[in-house]
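Can you make up a protein sequence with its backbone structure tokens?

===
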Amino acid sequence: MSLVTFTVVLLAVVAPQAPIPSTDAIKRTVIVDRGGFQAMKLEYAPGAADPAGEHTFDVVVVPIDPGMSLEIEGKPVRWQPGVAVLIPRGAPHSIRNASKSTVSFIVVHRLLEADIKPPAPPETNGVTIVRSTDSKYVRATTLRFERAGELRTGAAKNVGPSLFVLATPGDVRMMIGSAVSDFPQQKAGTVWAFEPGTPFGLINVGRGPIEIVRISAPPGRAAP
């Protein structure tokens, strides 16, 4: 099964950011571009590289395959499938495929002009925080869902959206209001996006634990 992506409901309208065009060495596929977040799947051919530079937006990188070399502010950062890396806006960084195979990963940008509120705190059962990293404008939290572990968020006003990136393969049940859908055998790199204030839930219906990265605005630091 190929990478499956769901934009659950329309997010608040924010002018989308034009993605950098694909090349023979680097393929870029936009997955979500709404509500101030842009998620893309990137595929780097062997030896492909982006030279040192910086962005005017925050970037969360979720590795899918091994093999990339990443530096932030001149320091090497460990590249490990499933382990999210947060690059704050303005931080010089470079990335290169040092392997002999094509490498895929997910990147999520928080656009500079977007006014994104923090999401409502979720209720969880059988879910623990593996790691959480904040920049001034973005929070990236990796959550471990044990077997039958679940995360739920009720209807709420004046809250922001969340993106979820499946960091490890797994079987997920999704609830939106009273609707329930099962998505078995999802590959790492699947992306879900939920509209601000929409009640939803995610449940691990597989036989073992899975990890999911939640990307949102950090509490108390919503506006750029």
Summary: Confidence is low (pLDDT under 50) at residues 1-16. The chain has two domains: 13-110, 123-216. Residues 34 and 70 are 27 Å apart (CA to CA).
